[in-house]
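Hey, I was hoping to borrow your eyes for a little while. For a while now I've been wondering how a particular protein folds. The fold is given in discrete form, as structure tokens running alongside the sequence. Could you read through the record and tell me how the tokens relate to the sequence? Take your time with it, there's no hurry, and the full record follows here:
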Amino acid sequence: MAQEETETTKPHFDPNIKKRRRRRKRKRGKNSHKNNERYPSVLLPHQRRILTPPLNYPKSSTKPKNPHVRSKEFPSQNKISKELQKLPIDIVKNIYSALGGQPSRITTEDRLFQLCAKALKQDSRVTTLVKDLHHRDRQALSILLHCGGMIHNSSILEELIISLGGQSKDWEKTMLLLERKGLIAKTNEQNGHFFYIVPSILLPFLVHSLQDELRLPLFSHEDLKELEKREFEPSFHFSITTLLTYIDQHPLRLTQQALISKSDKDALDSFFTQIWDSQSDIFNLHIEFLMQHGLVVYKDNGLRTNDPVIEEWYTLSPFEQGRLILSKLEKDFPLIEWLFWVLEQAGDQWIAEQPLQALYRRWRKGDEWRDAFHTETWSSPLSIKESTAFAPLIAQGLVDIGFWGSEKFYRLSSRTKALLKNSNKEDFEEFYLTPSFDIAAPAGLSHEKLYQIGHFADLISCDRLNSYKITEYSIEQALKKGWRRDQILSFLKKNSQIGLPENVEDTIRGWIGTQGDMEVFEATILSIHKSQIKKFESTRSYKPFIAHRFTPGLYAIDPSRKEDFIALLAKDGFQTSSSIREPLPTLENIKSRSILQEQLIEANEAQKELLEMQSTLEVDKNDFQSIESKKKKRNKKKNPNRGKGTRQICEDAIALKQSLQVTYVTKNEEIIKVTLLPERIATTSTGSQVLVATDQKTEKRLSYNLMQIKNIRLS
């Protein structure tokens, strides 16, 4: 009844409701969010991008379409003004002049910084500045941005000649033009060596305006022929898991030269013939990764699996596993993350070899010269290689190659695409268990489940469906690894598509026999108050100390490391009470569990180094040297009337009937030097003051705007 009464007394629609809502929104102050405070958003591991974007490369094909989006893409006006204050005033004047301003009319530096920052925030001004550049000047600026916005003076000339042809003197003129427009500056010279630098505050605006020049062109054609490859290209996680299972069941013998014996290597290549061949480097990539991260170790004259580290490997998220794999690839092929990022943006399309090689070469040289700049080793120019071979990436199955005529094209392989997905989603949740004790596990099954199947079933073949066979010997090996009878049966019942066949269950029970129903352990038990559980479990530095997690808040720890752990907890604000227990018998391998965590920290630090390369290049204001400021220093000694104003010098020349030596900037921004016979100073209809004078060389009577006279002195 109450509901019916409410509905009947419901007011009619008021057209002023929307207006009142808008007024309420406007009345909300800056601190209104405190009443309904929201926590900052944090990306979960599966939401984070596994790759680091390359330096000064367009992040997307779409440009900001409205001021709200643009405000997120570019710095605020206050930040731009602060960054401009770090530059010499001559460079700021050049930037403002190139954007259409008149710095000579601005009386204070603070006002100049404010107006220049405002001009940079206007998209049309920067876009117009870039569009007005000559095509080759835009190309040269794009190459400088590809190099990171900073490169040695001789190195950039070599790169421009290699990429675009021409001569050094022509490109020196181009760099001079860009410098006069404030788009680049150069540092002080050291024995004839200096660096061209794009002011860091201009980088986001130039990258936005030069998207088409900076982004590599994509290609697709029906006649493009892809190099033959295997039909089955599983993910790294699948091939690593299957290889671990194989080594666990068939340890690899090593020779005195620490090489895998020929018979074992041939048997292994024959088993994995669906994934790689004997001439491929895919196996070398896998085995090196397993050895570097401690997943397999040298033991008893051979390579054997390291179970504690493998258990730790499967507790990592796909993002963390991917970071470890990329860290290994980065050591073998520097800046491979940037290369993968560009190829990933292409999707299923192709990128030609020549522009891709040129881009990678510029990245490498920019990285090397950045280090040289900070270490002040300017006197040894680095040589630029004409080409960079991507053959190792092809041999390792990371990149696909295609041919169209005589040209080569590249794109990411399906194996690498799967690595970069960073997804927890499983294609399959169950495997197939037959009454004949055979297990068929698809490649899309959880990798941890795949490895667990290998504990109690022999691996028979590797393909889209891995084949396993449950035998009495495999069950015995599972018991040695700590599996219990009920655990095996429960695992098979839960994950088999058709459940556990009755004959298989009875046979496994007969093989295992009876086991004790109870086990007794002596351990050091740690309990955490429920208010501190979230803080405790989110701290990775505690993980190596924990041997077992019973429930949230209750853990078993290594007694031998109890004092160190208590000290660490006390340092973080935990107050612990001492308790003494006997250690658990399975904690002897606790140190090996921390191997992956230490290497994961190294991988994250390597990613931070790539991110730091995108940070602002801090250059002291005194280290910059612009061409115009040099000219002013040279002319300072020659011009005794420097302290006088331009108008005063002109009036003195008219009174004394002397000629003037004038350096004049034309409307086309060309600088000319003329000798003038002054007649009078006039004012135009727009209010500009001009000098009416006759050019002695051409004997033409012209007007010269006083604001465009760069230098003037009496003859």
